[in-house]
Specification:
Distance between the termini: 27 Å
Low-confidence stretches: none
Structural class: alpha/beta
Radius of gyration: 20 Å
Largest sheet: 5 strands, mixed
Strand content: 25-35%
Number of helices: 5
Mean pLDDT: 94
Order of helices and strands: EEEHEHEHEEEEHEEEHEE
């Protein structure tokens, strides 16, 4: 697998620490998907604007020696400032719940960094909520991209040690080296005669997580994506799809045991040794 284009994750928000004037400090965090690059900068409360952010983005790019292909973020209340700040320096911003590296980093800082600072209030147990604020009606996937069938499979966390070398046309991984090597990670392989167009479409919608959702006498396999999209990949009808529904229930149990981590792959044939698409996902 060739080195993926740089994608940054950004969070610009107040933290649970008060300054000398009893005002919450504001902080900019930027990292890449593997956190090989990290950027931290406090922002004075009276300078929380797109111009300040644009200057910091320029400084971050100079320090990293790269220009990201896109900048993900998920702070609805900060959307305008972040979007304008990115635009001022020619960067593409993308509101997305696929903010796994940033979420882990914020959780770490809530435990190890902010409590050490003068003016610390209390750790936020949900420092970056990645849920939709309002229910979203799922939409059917385009007919031309419907998969022919799907397979429920699993790998261990250790299997992903060499994942960067796997052959895939589209996809995105994240670090799993902190997981127990024998942790079982469930996944779904979508088999499609139009595997490459399907994988390209998947890449464009920014996959976040898969979920089997009961709906009366049906069960739908949903793909949650980007900031607020929900796509129906397949609909199972009881009782004729009883076996598949049971497999979906097993998938949800295995996903819960794996702490929400799972994967989605797209292939033309299950015997192929390469993927049209492969994504590590996480329902947090």
């Amino acid at each position: 697998m060739k080195r993926p284009a740089a994608v940054w994750e950004l969070d610009f928000y107040s933290r649970p620490v008060l300054d000398d004037n009893n005002k919450k400090i504001w902080e900019l965090l930027i990292c890449d998907r593997d956190r090989a690059f990290e950027w931290v900068k406090q922002c004075p409360g009276n300078e929380v604007n797109s111009s300040w952010l644009a200057k910091e983005l320029e400084a971050a790019m100079a320090a990293a020696g790269e220009t990201p292909q896109k900048v993900r973020f998920f702070r609805p209340s900060m959307s305008n400032i972040i979007t304008r700040g990115c635009r001022q320096v020619g960067l593409t911003s993308l509101a997305s719940r696929r903010m796994f590296a940033m979420l882990n980093w914020l959780q770490e800082r809530m435990q190890t960094v902010y409590p050490q600072e003068t003016g610390f209030q209390a750790a936020d147990p949900h420092p970056l909520p990645l849920q939709n604020l309002q229910p979203v009606k799922p939409e059917p996937i385009p007919n031309a991209l419907m998969g022919d069938r799907w397979l429920l499979v699993s790998l261990t966390a250790a299997d992903f040690a060499s994942a960067s070398e796997w052959s895939m046309d589209f996809g995105e991984l994240f670090k799993t080296d902190s997981l127990a090597p024998n942790l079982v990670i469930p996944g779904i392989i979508i088999i499609s005669s139009r595997a490459l167009p399907l994988a390209a479409w998947m890449s464009g919608v920014d996959p976040v997580f898969l979920k089997f959702v009961p709906n009366r006498d049906r069960v739908q396999l949903l793909l949650e994506a980007s900031a607020d999209a929900s796509w129906i990949l397949t609909t199972l009808q009881a009782p004729k799809d009883g076996k598949a529904i049971a497999e979906g229930e097993s998938f949800e149990v295995a996903k819960q045991r794996a702490g929400g981590i799972h994967f989605m792959a797209v292939q033309k044939n299950p015997e192929d040794e390469e993927f049209a698409g492969f994504w590590l996902l996480n329902e947090v």
